[in-house]
Design brief:
By secondary structure, the protein is of the alpha+beta class. A six-stranded mixed sheet has the order 4-5-6-7-9-8. Strands 1-3-2 form a three-stranded antiparallel sheet, with helices on both faces. A hairpin with a 5-residue loop joins strand 4 and strand 5. About 30% of the residues are buried.
Length: about 260
């Protein structure tokens, strides 16, 4: 927004701010692509390949680059979803679970992918649960992943994840996701010291009653289990303060967040 001289707080620029925020969510923020959005797809697709070949395959002397490439594109198509090395090895027909884990680690080294563990006070259980996978820039999703539908909810969630990284949260130390005892998912749990600091739910559009109930119920349930009353929902365009089952929940837009 600064780059395009747009001030989201000015009433007369609010429509422009929405356009810029939406463009950033869909196409990411690589500087080379911002002035020329028509090259975004080809530029980022080439960049993705070059990271795989030069930063990963060459550096780690990976002989089977096809497996590495298949894994990377699979992770990209499944961004914001939980994954486990066992499932990946089976799904992609990779030689072993050990190799799969190794390849996943290689892909995290150049800050291309990040893995978010599920929060649990018992370390052993935390290690067993699948991690959620995120990508460093939304532009990669649009340029390389085989997306059959528009994943606006997941693009927004990925963007929130990158913003939390930018604020200094560290996956597995101060940042997690969570599943309640009734298997309701909370997108982000932030932690300060040993205390849970905030629970964050990301929901692109909360206008449907069913969606609203699902997101808020999950937050309230997790709040009770984790003893946290700092509850936030990040949406694309809705803002409000909600009282839900005796809990206070703040709803904020992504650009205000």
């Amino acid at each position: 927004m600064r780059w395009k001289n747009v001030n989201p707080d000015l009433e007369e620029q609010s429509a422009q701010a929405i356009v810029v925020a939406d463009d950033y969510m869909r196409n990411g923020g690589y500087p080379e692509t911002i002035q020329a959005r028509n090259i975004t797809k080809s530029y980022l697709s080439t960049l993705f390949d070059s990271i795989l070949l030069k930063d990963v395959a060459k550096r780690h002397k990976v002989r089977n680059t096809t497996d590495l490439y298949n894994l990377a594109t699979y992770l990209l198509s499944n961004f914001c979803n939980p994954i486990s090395a066992n499932d990946l090895a089976t799904e992609l027909g990779l030689s072993s679970v050990t190799t799969t884990k190794k390849f996943c680690d290689y892909l995290a080294e150049p800050y291309l992918f990040f893995y978010l563990p599920r929060f649990n006070n018992k370390m052993k259980l935390m290690k067993k649960a699948p991690n959620k996978v995120y990508v460093v820039d939304n532009g990669f999703v649009q340029s390389t992943a085989f997306n059959l539908s528009e994943n606006l909810g997941r693009l927004l969630e990925n963007q929130v994840f990158v913003e939390l990284l930018r604020r200094g949260y560290i996956p597995g130390k101060t940042l997690f996701y969570y599943r309640t005892r009734n298997d309701k998912e909370i997108d982000f749990v932030t932690r300060k010291g040993s205390k849970v600091e905030q629970l964050i739910q990301v929901c692109y559009d909360m206008s449907s009653e069913k969606t609203r109930k699902r997101e808020l119920d999950a937050l309230v349930e997790a709040a009770e289990e984790l003893h946290c009353d700092n509850l936030l929902v990040i949406t694309n365009s809705q803002e409000e303060k909600i009282e839900w089952k005796q809990a206070k929940i703040l709803v904020k837009t992504m650009k205000k967040f």
